[in-house]
Amino acid sequence: MIDAAIGTLCALNTHRLDRGELAQLSAHLKVNNLPFSDIETSTGAFFAFRTAQDETLGYAGVELFGRDGLLRSVLVLPAWRNRGLGSAIVEMAAALARELGVERLYLLTVDAADFFAARGFGALPRADAPARIAQSSEFASLCPASALFMGRDLRALRPSLPVA
């Protein structure tokens, strides 16, 4: 699985979404029952991951809180699932977050804890969330209180990824 994800990682193009493209991301998140209501007003960085032919495979976003980041909106579009793309997208999002100065990347998940644990995220008590992350709409209201809080240290990453 890791080898497939690494091969996929090398084949994906990354595109940072501009404000005009966030409505399409919101629509995809809504259809897939993921938090979407604040996407178009968020100050986060959201990315589309595409083939060399410019076909969108999935998305991810990182809300920036100084040296802390909140990974969100990780989504592989249905036609592209079960090919290792989720792993590749998470790794690329982590590298992009690191490029943006993030040292610790956090997330909330209702049903993908095992997936994220296999990608280096560890479960953390919600009470240990950095204050600015705990005040984010994702943490404070969009995700249920039952969502698992997880984190990963990114300081060992030394990315250099092109973003179109």
General form: globular
How far from one another are the termini?
27 Å
**Computed CA radius of gyration, to the nearest angstrom:** 15 Å
What is the number of beta strands? Answer: 7
Unreliable runs, pLDDT <50, ≥5 residues?
1-9
Summing up helix and strand content along with how strands pair, one would put the structural category as alpha+beta
Percentage of helical residues?
A: 25-40%
Oligomer designation:
single chain
Q: What does the model show?
A:
- The protein is an alpha+beta fold.
- Helices cover 30% and strands 27% of the residues.
- It has 6 helices and 7 strands; from the N terminus they run αβαβββαβαβααβ.
- A hairpin with a 5-residue loop joins strand 2 and strand 3.
- It starts with a helix and ends in an 11-residue tail after the last strand.
- Residues 1-9 have low confidence and may be disordered.
